[in-house]
Design brief:
about 190 residues; Arp2/3 complex 21 kDa subunit ARPC3; single chain; mainly alpha; globular
């Protein structure tokens, strides 16, 4: 008889949990949408983090699923020198998603999406300034880096809002017609 450790038991439990499978499937679909033609930075990156944090019950898997989805899609697209800043931002987005848990509504999702987009912008562009060598490592270079990134920020904000609408909206619609997908009441 094979003995499973705690994490292996949780993985097996999640594998047979239809709600977890649906949530993971939605996150993977959103992450793989990055492979389709799109405007620069119009992606679901922070939306999948918020969605995972808001709905995946096991907090470890709330981090693992969005990060793994990004690793898989990045392995196809290609990694870049500041991918670590993107993944760090995703972790922050999952934490913001935790605050949505059990209180998901449209205004809170919009506020969380905007907040996570701003954090993503600050963290990833700070990383670009520090690592890529495109800007002088002084205050003027930092301001120039953030200024040059503003057009991408507009697309990032729009992408996060659209993908949050798709993810949270489609899941809300699913739970309306498939009640056992709803989170268990605490």
């Amino acid at each position: 008889m094979v003995k499973l450790n705690k994490i292996e038991r949780q993985i097996m439990k999640n594998f047979f949990d239809i709600r977890f499978v649906v949530l993971t499937g939605l996150i993977l679909l959103a992450a793989f949408s990055r492979l389709l033609p799109h405007l620069p930075n119009f992606t679901p990156v922070m939306a999948i983090a918020l969605f995972g944090g808001a709905y995946i019950a096991d907090k470890r898997f709330a981090f693992i699923v969005p990060l793994l989805a990004m690793v898989i899609s990045d392995s196809i697209i290609g990694f870049h020198s500041t991918f670590w800043a993107v993944y760090f931002s995703i972790g922050i987005g999952v934490f913001i998603g935790f605050m949505l848990n059990k209180k998901v509504n449209t205004p809170r999702v919009i506020y969380s999406s905007l907040t996570s987009s701003v954090i993503f912008f600050i963290v990833t562009n700070l990383a670009v300034w520090l690592v890529d060598g495109m800007y002088p490592l002084n205050f003027s270079g930092l301001i120039q880096c953030y200024t040059m990134a503003l057009p991408f920020f507009r697309n990032s904000l729009a992408g996060d809002l659209v993908y949050c609408g798709i993810l949270f909206g489609s899941y809300a619609l699913m739970t309306r017609y498939i009640p056992y997908l709803k989170p268990a009441e605490a």
